[in-house]
């Protein structure tokens, strides 16, 4: 980067430390400050406590007294707010008025307290009774062709509610069950499945106690999975080396002060986490990985020539993998010049990083949205697996591929049937268990569903949580088309934008939060979820519900299903609602290998492992072996470089959970006060004739002739690679074309958006 005398914003402190406690404190002070909150937090992520609603990081068998982090605490406190968004609130504001409000102000109204239905005559939501809401929704759904409806899920709802939701969709007659995963780790579900036969990570939490190196791509633990910082710190202290690839120098991967360690807190002495931090260009990971593989194979060849043992694991490659020869030829053909250009990393640095990989006996590859949200994201995952396969780093202790999942039960929802891919669901089994003829056609992904809304073929959209309209690409066109639908239904805890962009008939159905007591006819209920490591945990809420008029997610799903579907002796919605243990027995019957004795194992400390074939070196791939794959090019970007074109990465701040904005402090990046900022490196700033504080717009540069614009962005110098811009999700979503998505899985390419700066 040019030295032009401009300073980039950078937070000098570590991740964690006093700052993270202050971050909790501000929210705590504003929301509430009763001992009950602390009591709720102390129960978080403990056996027989409730499982955090924030991220999907593992819950150890021997938890800390405070087994939660700044952002998990914020998420819990956020749902326990004393503020209430009541029918009186809706009485005072038309939907047209609320559409002018910021997302932050909508959610700040607090918890929804009563079912609400849209009244076109007044342009307001009005309160209704549950029976009325269910009956009307059932009536609307019965009028529609099932395949013209979509049942979306956002990744939080329990295994029990999710299983019934997917049954509801299939009894009704469709597989249109996209999940937030379709905007997130679907690249993993498809890309990793193709090469390892596993749609999820192959590691378990304990592997982090045994690895010698961690290769870390495009995931930001300081903000998005802060409890991961503890195993990372422990690993580094044991001598494990972390090599990070990320365009942004994320504090959480640089240095960590453990807020649960009094000595570190007093002295401020933390741990330097990454021993190498390589600022890869957006979409440059395929090239970077190619460089690493090239050096590994080059050193291997040299060692053999010198009469020494080689570097790669030939026995593993011969026994367990397929197509190594083609891959080796692709590596030999790749040119260092192009590798350096596309990755933005020098050959010397890539060789040093590869030397760490060579020296390590056991390596774990970690990744997040930086790999998955690109047009060739599944190829990036394939390249990462290639690197791991070279040394047999899959399916043994201390080694493996570890995607860090997002929502706290997003992986589990897929496990129990929320999937638009019928081949992933045991339909024959369900047909026998529930005496019906399941739909067999492929359902709609998120992107397909959006296309269906645009072309009018999707007529109804039901959301089990989430804020779909805010989370998807192509906002302007999508919001305009959304209102043409016949029906929209949102099961939610707080008001959000998706409730305001609604169909002809529209309902907001308020539900219990996970930390709240779920009382049903048989007594208080527990629910369950699955973490990033395929471990299943029970969760029990103890707090009093936010309102006496709200229902559990499971009860709402069952209520809608009962009102929509004909009576059937095997569809026992009332019995299932009365006792969730019966639903767990159904899950155990459907997925007997993974979920046998589900009720008995529900509160196993550290969760019970549902198993993973690739973890045991059984490869459920086309060839029956782990697949080496050769990328079609070195860049993961869908739209290449051009003069004046920038590649925008859309990021999360430390003060948000997806579309929920807690505040305006991105503490770990030293960015305070506004989310309407454009991050740019000082060299690019000067080349564009910009000064810090200038107000600019971004326009789409995707070559499709569509005008897409985000205006009012403050130019902010930041340490980024050349040609790369940073901005916040979801503010930047109007700039992402719907067609710009991973080629294999249709995950939107939110980390490689082609844009131009307009002054
Ligand atoms: N507090 C909090 N926790 C969360 C969430 C939240 O919003 N707030 N969201 C949850 C959800 S649903 C998810 S999916 C996860 C998301 O967690 P992450 O996977 O960490 O997702 P992001 O923050 O979007 O981006 C990840 C990182 O990718 C980097 N990056 C961008 N482009 C590239 C690239 O081309 N290559 C590489 N190597 N890196 C790149 C960015 O700089 C950023 O550091 O977090 C979950 N946890
Ligand atoms: N540009 C860009 N776009 C992105 C991303 C990106 O990195 N960049 N990331 C993508 C990713 S990884 C994801 S996962 C999606 C997220 O997409 P979603 O999962 O659809 O969105 P969230 O913001 O997590 O949903 C927030 C809403 O969920 C509701 N909610 C919260 N808790 C509960 C609960 O317990 N039950 C119920 N029923 N409702 C609840 C609240 O009403 C809240 O308003 O966004 C995607 N979009
Ligand atoms: Mo996600």
Overview of this structure, please?
The protein has four domains: 15-79, no CATH class; 84-182 and 409-596, 3-Layer(aba) Sandwich (Rossmann fold), CATH 3.40.50; 186-405 and 623-627, Dimethylsulfoxide Reductase, domain 2 (3-Layer(aba) Sandwich); 646-758, Barwin-like endoglucanases (Beta Barrel), CATH 2.40.40. It has 32 helices and 33 strands. The longest helix is centred in the middle third of the chain and has 21 residues, at 285-305. The chain has 759 residues and is α/β, with parallel strands linked by helices. 58% of the residues are buried. It is globular, with a radius of gyration of 25 Å. The chain has a six-stranded mixed beta sheet. Strands 29-31-30-33-24-32 form a six-stranded mixed beta sheet. A five-stranded parallel beta sheet has the order 11-8-7-13-14, sandwiched between helices. The structure holds ligand MGD (2 copies) and molybdenum atom.
List the helices and strands and how they pair.
Elements: E1 15-16, H1 17-31, H2 35-42, H3 70-79, E2 84-85, H4 87-92, H5 95-98, H6 103-107, E3 111-112, E4 116-119, E5 124-127, H7 130-143, E6 149-153, H8 159-172, H9 186-196, E7 213-217, H10 221-224, H11 229-237, E8 241-245, H12 251-254, E9 255-257, H13 262-267, E10 271-272, E11 274-278, H14 285-305, H15 314-320, E12 321-322, H16 324-333, H17 336-343, H18 347-359, E13 363-367, H19 369-372, H20 377-390, E14 400-403, H21 410-415, H22 427-434, H23 446-455, E15 460-464, H24 468-471, H25 475-482, E16 487-492, H26 497-500, E17 505-510, E18 519-520, E19 523-524, E20 527-530, E21 535-539, H27 553-564, H28 573-578, H29 580-590, H30 592-595, H31 598-601, E22 608-609, E23 626-627, E24 646-651, E25 656-657, E26 660-661, E27 665-666, E28 671-672, E29 677-680, H32 682-687, E30 695-700, E31 709-717, E32 724-728, E33 753-758
Parallel strand pairs: 1-9, 2-3, 6-15, 7-8, 7-13, 8-11, 12-23, 13-14, 15-16, 16-17, 24-32, 29-31
Antiparallel strand pairs: 4-5, 4-17, 9-10, 18-19, 20-21, 21-22, 24-33, 25-26, 27-28, 30-31, 30-33
Helix pairs in contact: 1-3, 7-27, 8-27, 8-29, 9-20, 14-17, 14-18, 14-20, 23-25
Bound molecules: ligand MGD (2 copies) and molybdenum atom (MO).
